[in-house]
Amino acid sequence: METKFNFEGLRIADFTWVFAGPACCRIFGDQGAEIIRIESRERPDPVRPILSDDKSPDSERGGYFNNLNRNKLHVTLNLSHPTSVELAKKIIGISDVVVENFSANVMEKLGLGYDELVKVKPDIIMVSASGFGHSGPYRDYRSFGPNLQAISGLTNLTGFPDNAPAGFASSYADSMGGLTAALATLMALNHRQKTGKGQHVDVAQFEGLCSLMDTCFLDYSANGRVHQRMGNRHPDAAPHGAYPARPDEGKERWCTIAVFTDQEWRSLCKVMGDPPWAEDNRFSTAEGRVQHALELDKLVAEWTVNRTAEEVMETLQAAGIAAGVVQSADDLFKRDSHLKARGYYQISEHPYLGERLNEGSPMKFSHTEAGVRRHAPLFGEHNNYVYGELLGMSEEEIEQLHREGVI
Fold this sequence. Notes:
Elements: E1 11-14, H1 20-30, E2 34-39, H2 63-68, E3 72-76, H3 84-93, E4 97-100, H4 106-109, H5 114-120, E5 125-130, H6 145-151, H7 172-195, E6 200-204, H8 205-210, H9 214-223, E7 240-248, E8 251-258, H10 262-271, H11 286-291, H12 293-304, H13 309-318, E9 322-325, H14 329-335, H15 337-341, E10 345-350, E11 354-359, H16 383-390, H17 395-403
Parallel strand pairs: 1-2, 1-4, 2-3, 4-5, 5-6
Antiparallel strand pairs: 7-8, 8-9, 10-11
């Protein structure tokens, strides 16, 4: 049976770099779209490691780059060269969507703003996924994940009350920015399917992160109350947090537990063997458990610390209590039986890196496929295909453009 993909036949001109933009295009690549990644040798993606003596990018071994750019094609194009704009427009002319995540005005300065692109292809969809959007007083501010997370309010809520804001260990903003841009692209494609018209989509990663503050916004608008850092605690639930489990080969292990209702509390007590302290009047109501959360945490920890993190999770889940192992990367790759059972990790063969394990698509469809079809492209790997087969240039023309420094 022939494999079918949701976006087979869709072509995206990918002008993105770093994380958020490439993550957006990767979603469509996983679903079968043809992604033509456009990149300059003179100004390569900064996530490529610079390892060679001449300071050129070691484009074939960058794990970060390879992870974000699987299932894509790659052409080189020096956008600072005067001839390059017309060549870029030719690629756009055979594409359905253009995605970029530069700062505002970069594409306009290159001669590739939306007003220019509609002259090339009237129904083109252009998705601009900058940090702060293309309007407003912050539009020209530089942005990376940590400062976007901070300005959105998320960093201020992360950590313990008596310590400085902790922030995130990974660039959550970029993942969210990629998802927001992909969702916006889907909406624009739906609009074009209904009306035949393309449009320019202005995605502000900042606003996408602000949308995650919904409860805080609601509490402030309704009650004038500003949320504060609470660590692992919850204002309406206890026990609620991360609890120590039995160490494994000298390494600490943890498991989270969240109890919201009286029924869940009674189930937890039963699982723990109905210890005498569970009858304490301080813990008889949800309000009392929250008020005495510190004492309660110590008592629950005396039970969890004698069991493996997996045992705590499985036992409590069987009793209808939300619990989960606090997993590391090692746990996710080697221990997690659920991810293995669902085939989440997929293998690709890279010509320089060899066999690589990739995270797969989090979506499964009953009639279509999604996932890793090929490794991330090598630098300029598809110049001949794109410039030759798709744009109809001869080998002599392509070689001349190479000599002139255009590609």
